[in-house]
Write a structure and sequence with these properties.
The protein is an alpha+beta fold. About 55% of the residues lie in helices and about 15% in strands. It has 16 helices and 12 strands. The protein has a 6-stranded antiparallel sheet with strand order 1-6-8-7-2-3, with helices on both faces. Strands 4-5 form a two-stranded antiparallel ribbon. A hairpin with a 6-residue loop joins strand 7 and strand 8.
Length: about 475
């Protein structure tokens, strides 16, 4: 039987806390918004269970959902207490207007576990019908889920300070019961309190180690509730997507966020224009009787439509922004991993071991004789100089391991090392303009290929490659 695993996910959030996300966590939705959420593809909300949701307020008090202060208001209050004003904005010296700082000012933390165990904690032996449109209004919330949530809350307070937790919402109206903890990452820096996600949580370089430690700590808290730590990636060997794949996804996400931001801006302008027109007509109606009543009603109907569309786009924007924040975290992790690999490879390429030497000798012998056989079969039709000096053959027959090492140094960005290595091994080098500077959007495989061809030129002796009589190879 599969064990029950805990869930811990931390996402850094840039910019002001999105109103729509705060509303989602507290279920502060109008009927129109509820209709929209329930009709979305993949929606998992069950309105007949919404009454089971709850929040944990300061002092570890369990309160009904929506009765605590709004997350956005608590964010502003806490920043004021810290004497930080609004860290999401700064004054543009040129215009005097407020502009976004693009800082990470909050952390969104999701806590939960395997569905079977979370349902047991939340609903006990009661059977919840998870089919779309089912009526679960008879379901009663169990005390165990409250005890579990309080344990999570106290653990978070111990780590990040209760005064910095601006939202702790527990959702029992979705497929899997879970809670959202929103934290302002406050740290003491140079004797003063300030907001710093990197200090409180992790940097790209420390993320793996820090998250692993947090999972270990949380496992102790979750043990009495039948949840245990998930398997470590280092032990399971789980594979992750490449940095290039993450960057492509991030670019698509940024494009979607930009498009939705523009839509919301246009709808906001349209709404403000309609409000101004309605206000003007109301003033005229006061002076001219009820002449403009019909026009006002028509404009109000149009305003309602614009407002609904704007709310819809705002919700979509909040969701995409949350996804983008998560994608940025994954990109940072992938970039940190790539840097670690580069340093490890740079250190390892100079190591010599018997196994490495034997493998290199076998590879060189096989490559040498296979390419020499190709040349012998084509030498009557292909000039010797063309085959040896104008193709990859000369370098491959001469010193494939050295060409590979030179290309690897170029790929890692160690251009000076690659030049020194080529020259110290008899290579003629190449001009500065021949070096393979990387394009911004170029993928790893394509860039590696260009580095190898450049290494071929760098390693080529000034006199070129020549074939000895009898089939051997000599360098001139």
């Amino acid at each position: 039987m599969a064990s029950n695993k805990q869930v811990l996910d931390i996402l850094p959030s840039k910019g002001a806390y999105p109103m729509a996300v705060g509303d989602e966590q507290s279920r502060n939705w109008t009927e129109r918004q509820w209709d929209y959420q329930l009709q979305k593809e993949g929606a998992t909300y069950d309105r007949t269970r919404t009454h089971l949701n709850f929040e944990i307020a300061p002092g570890a008090k369990i309160v009904s959902m929506g009765t605590n202060k709004k997350i956005g208001d608590r964010f502003k209050e806490r920043c004021k207490e810290l004497g930080l004003g609004d860290p999401n904005f700064k004054i543009d010296k040129a215009t005097g207007k407020l502009i976004p700082t693009n800082r990470v000012t909050t952390a969104w933390i999701q806590l939960g576990g395997s569905r079977e165990q979370m349902h047991k904690l939340a609903f006990g032996d009661q059977k919840v019908n998870l089919e779309d449109g089912a009526d679960n209004s008879h379901i009663v919330r169990m005390k165990d889920i409250e005890k579990w949530a309080l344990a999570q809350y106290r653990w978070a307070c111990k780590l990040w300070g209760e005064e910095n937790i601006i939202g702790f919402n527990v959702h029992l109206d979705e497929l899997n019961p879970h809670c959202h903890c929103t934290v302002i990452p406050v740290a003491t820096i140079k004797g003063k309190q300030n907001i710093s996600f990197n200090t409180v949580f992790y940097t790209p370089k420390t993320m793996k180690e820090r998250l692993s430690a947090l999972h270990d700590e949380l496992a102790v808290v979750n043990k009495p509730f039948g949840l245990e730590r998930g398997d470590k990636v280092s032990e399971t060997g789980a594979k992750h997507r490449t940095k290039d794949e993450y960057l492509r996804d991030k670019a698509h996400m940024e494009k979607a966020v930009k498009g939705l931001t523009t839509m919301v801006s246009h709808l906001t302008e349209e709404r403000n224009s309609l409000l101004a027109e309605i206000e003007s007509l109301k003033n005229n109606r006061i002076a001219d009787g009820n002449r403009y009543t019909k026009q006002i009603l028509e404009l109000q109907e149009k305003l309602l439509d614009v407002q609904t569309r704007m709310e819809h786009k705002q919700q979509m924007l909040a969701e995409k922004q949350a996804q983008l924040n998560g994608m940025e975290r994954r990109v940072q992790a992938a970039q940190a991993k790539a840097q670690q690999i580069e340093l490890a490879v740079h250190s390892a390429i100079n190591e010599v071991s018997p196994a490495r030497m034997l493998a290199a000798e076998v590879f060189i012998d096989e490559l040498y004789y296979s390419m020499l056989d190709v040349w012998n079969k084509t030498r009557t039709t292909v000039p010797e100089d063309d085959y040896m000096d104008k193709s990859f053959a000369g370098a491959a027959l001469s010193a494939p391991a050295k060409v590979f090492k030179c290309g690897l140094l170029l790929f890692l960005g160690f251009v000076n090392d690659a030049t020194t290595f080529a020259e110290s091994n008899g290579g003629g080098g190449c001009s500065q303009s021949d070096l393979p500077w990387r394009d911004r959007d170029e993928e790893d495989a394509a860039y590696m290929r260009r580095c190898m061809f450049c290494a071929q030129k760098m390693m080529k002796p000034k006199g070129g490659y020549k074939v000895k009589k009898g089939g051997g190879l000599s360098l001139h």
